[in-house]
User: Fold this.
Amino acid sequence: MQAEILKEYSISGRFFKDDEPDSEVGFETDEEDLDSLESSDEEKAEQADSDDGEWKASATAFTPPPFVIAPGPSRAATHGSSPLDFFRLFVTLEVVDQMRKATNAYGTSLFTEDWVNTDRKEMDRFFAAVIYMGIHRSPTLKSYWAADSKSPFLASLFPSRDRFLQLYRSFYIAAGQRDPGDMLWHVRPLVDSLTKSFPLHMDPPRILIVDEALVHCKARSTMKQYIRAKPHRWGYKVWCLVSDGYLLRFSVYLGKRGQENGAKPSQVAERLVKPYYGLNHLVVTDNWYTSPALFQTFLRNSTFALGTTLANRKGFPRSLVPEVANFARFQWSFRQNDKLVAYAFFDRKPVYLLSTVHPPTQTSTIDRRDKTGESHAHTVPTAVKDYTSLRGGVDTIDQLQSY
Assistant:
């Protein structure tokens, strides 16, 4: 299993440290939140012009090493016999007990003598009811028990509607005093449990995708962000590492006042991917994260990468920019710096990519229809075709987290 290999590389413990499409080929525009509309002086310096340095217009062939890890779920995940067994992989009894104690304390303060302490079994029924409600929508909570719209499943979990509403109002995750140094103190036990359990129960396949998801929220919070390309544009931004639709690692963006204030997107990507160094994974990023420096860091740690980038990113070969201005559609050029290849590709507008896994002369064919509807085959860099097919991993997470 991958856990044994991670131990061999002395990195297994790192899991638990704190650490709109604009063209037919589907490249994303740079997604900015409100905190990032103005670049900092440091970011402007990073995007300053640079000469081509070690970048060369001649191609040198290279072959990335194979990915030899057998992906799949953990032994515990394959031996679960009920939905509760799978739920318990991620929300442990220890966390349930913390939530039970916090809920009892808050319920007592709200309802005094009318409150009856909850236990593990009732908490499990409560979680099942909340998950069910996320899948089967109803106008109000009370309508699940109404005579004309009653849910037999919920009625079997909570025959008393008032008891469920009492639990719903009293539910608390973390007990104790507010921690002014931790903006997630009220959900910290659950966040820590998920941070540990998600990677523990999946050995991912070769492709890892770094992107951000948005957890929709209408509450007032300084942590809320705006991302225009998401289905719900306001909510909590979560940086994600995803593989094959499975969320491996995540980090909640805390806003300007948060603990990670000043962290660059490339630093976030490096922190998410670091536990998988040395295993020959391929990391896919968009132009919010991609930089030559980040990809060189990955390469030094036996991790490969592919992603769109910005032409003014520090270290990018600027000689490609005037070239692509004269290109017809589907033309491209490249520069190579050892095993790091920069591409300038013209679709409806210039697109720039970096790859450490595609030799510059490797090409593939894509089909596109002209204005008359007739399909034509076009030769493009394989990096372009692969990025188009691989970049949507977080879309599945966006869909699932809506429940």
